[in-house]
TrEMBL record:
One of its GO terms (biological process) is rRNA processing. GO terms for molecular function: hydrolase activity; metal ion binding; RNA binding; RNA nuclease activity. This is Rne/Rng family ribonuclease. Keywords: Hydrolase, Magnesium, Metal-binding, RNA-binding. PANTHER family: RIBONUCLEASE, RIBONUCLEASE G. Residues 143-416 form the RNA-binding protein AU-1/Ribonuclease E/G domain. One of its GO terms (cellular component) is cytoplasm. InterPro entries: NA-bd_OB-fold, RNA-bd_AU-1/RNase_E/G, RNase_E/G. The keyword GTP-binding does not apply. It comes from the Bacteria. Its cofactor is Mg(2+).
Length: 522
């Protein structure tokens, strides 16, 4: 499987697409000025306790206070509190925890008022971004993730990912990490550390200790609330968590971001930075040049066609309580001899698409999938196992229940960011609640604007290009004479037509040779 990362930047956002064999599997959108992202570390102040919830509300600078439950405090929260107080007061002047005297661990079944009081300063980390009207969800069980290791301050424990099955390899990794681990810190060994040498692990550990030093220096500033540590940009985080030999290309349209990613890739995979390519040429945005915008439009929306299924499709509905996905059979054979066999085949293809949709849209909570009815229990089991296999590619925590007696499969999936919702329908300006089918009336408006440009700009009205939806572009250039040819005869100007996948049906722009707007509508 060949994986590819495509990163496109705008004025205030970054879009990241992860492709597998050319097919869009994950899509991330991140605001450049986004605060309160998962993994960010803050120094906050406890605003109030909520004993009935066994939780506290913490001011970290967001419009709504962050929510901290007792179970998210972590066993070493008292040590973290004491360390924070000593560092901010200047009584402890080292990020090294070797000489730090730890406090006792808190009880698993304790209450929030035994640990925190209103007005306390506390170091926290965001585990769930603000969603809708809710503030961030946070934890005081601090961890700093690297490529191979995760650093956990105030813990001495070394643990290994359960996905590493070999006991001999686990023992080898634990022995190596124990030999380099600084006192006062715990280490979690990630799955990708399997087979790595001590030098690679040590380099990753040094990288994490440098981050902890940044946290230490920011605590010394004694500003509350304050961001102590930024989680890395989303593109680099994807590389950190996903990069392997399957990645064959990374395409970026921004020189600075490409430089940052090259620097990070040199840390986690020396010698692999050559796969990063900068593509800033062309008047059409990167996602459109690479066909990603077209895939987005095909992949989002209520109805999603399932490739290679002879017309089967998904209907995805969203409610307040859950998501419902219905698998429709399309042109599946209805003969009694092969209906069960065909149903299983289509259901397996649909299960793969369901797994992809959950990753692509980052759907969370409860998802109920209604597959095509099957009567054979072995087939039901085969479908369940196939879905579990497909969902193993999903890094989000999830649980899949076996088919119910009604043939429904229920999935719970953790969501730490707002669900990605891209609107693919296009409104008709002449009628409410209707979709546009043919924007024929647009031509007259285009011609009027074109006439105004030529009349007002005079000789400057050269190298005019018209950016439009692909369907409209085809309409403008078809036939003899085409509408474009008629414009040439009328205005003595040849208009370059540029199809834009991201444009709505009625959207168009006239651009000059510098790709700046002559005029803009819609």
């Amino acid at each position: 499987m060949n994986k590819e990362l495509v990163v496109s930047t705008g004025e205030d956002f970054v879009q990241i697409a992860m492709l597998e064999d050319g097919r869009l599997m994950e899509l991330h959108q991140e605001n450049v000025d986004l605060n309160f992202a998962v993994g960010d570390m803050y120094l906050g102040k406890v605003k109030k306790l909520a004993p009935s919830l066994n939780a506290a509300f913490v001011d970290i600078g967001y419009s709504k206070d962050a929510f901290l439950h007792y179970h998210d405090l972590g066993p070493h929260v008292k040590s973290l509190k004491t360390y924070t107080q000593l560092v901010s007061s200047g009584k402890f002047k080292s990020p090294n925890l070797k000489s730090f005297r730890k406090e006792e661990m808190i009880k698993k079944d304790g209450t929030i008022d035994q640990v925190l009081s209103a007005g306390d300063s506390i170091v926290i980390q965001i585990t769930k971004e603000p969603i809708h009207t809710k503030g961030p969800r946070i934890t005081s069980e601090i961890s700093i993730a690297g490529r191979f290791l995760i650093l956990t301050p105030f813990s001495d424990k070394v643990s290994v990912s359960q996905k590493i099955k070999s006991k001999a390899e686990k023992d080898r990794l634990v022995a190596l990490v124990e030999s380099i681990k600084p006192e006062g810190f715990g280490i979690i060994i990630r799955t990708v550390a399997e087979g790595k040498k001590v030098a690679e692990l040590h380099a990753d550990l040094n990288y994490l200790m440098n981050k902890w030093q940044v946290v230490f220096k920011n605590i010394q500033k004694k500003v509350v609330p304050m961001k102590l540590l930024n989680e890395m940009d989303r593109a680099s985080a994807i590389l950190r968590d996903n990069f392997n030999e399957d990645f064959v290309k990374i395409t970026v349209d921004d020189d600075d971001l490409a430089e940052d990613m090259t620097e990070y890739l040199n840390i986690i995979a020396p010698g692999k930075s050559g796969i990063i390519k900068v593509s800033t040429d062309g008047e059409v945005p990167l996602f459109e040049r690479m066909g990603i915008e077209r895939q987005i439009k095909f992949s989002f929306g209520k109805n999603v066609t399932i490739p290679q299924s002879k017309g089967a499709y998904l209907v995805i509905e969203h409610t307040e309580a859950l998501h419902v996905i219905d698998v429709n059979s399309g042109n599946i054979s209805r003969s009694s001899n092969n209906q069960e066999e065909s149903a299983l085949a289509v259901n397996k293809i649909a299960a793969s698409e369901v797994a992809r949709q959950l990753r692509l849209r980052d759907m969370g909570g409860i998802i109920v999938v209604d597959f095509i009815d099957m009567t054979n229990n072995e087939n039901k089991k085969a479908l369940y196992e196939h879905l579990r296999t497909e969902m193993q590619k999903d890094r989000a925590k999830h649980k899949i229940l076996p088919p119910s007696k009604f043939g429904l499969i229920q999935i719970t999936r953790q969501r730490v960011r707002p669900e990605l919702n891209i609107i693919t329908t296009e409104e008709n300006p002449n009628a409410l609640n209707e979709e546009v089918e043919a924007p024929i009336l647009l031509i007259e408006k285009m011609e009027q604007i074109l006439r105004n440009i030529i009349e007002t700009k005079g000789k400057k009205a050269n190298d005019i290009s018209l950016h439009v939806h692909p369907f409209v572009a085809a309409y403008l250039t078809k036939g003899i004479p085409s509408i474009r040819q008629k414009w040439y005869i009328k205005f003595k100007k040849w208009i370059k037509i540029v199809p834009r996948d991201s444009y709505k049906y009625l959207q168009f722009n006239f651009l000059n040779k510098n790709n700046t707007l002559f005029n803009e509508s819609n």
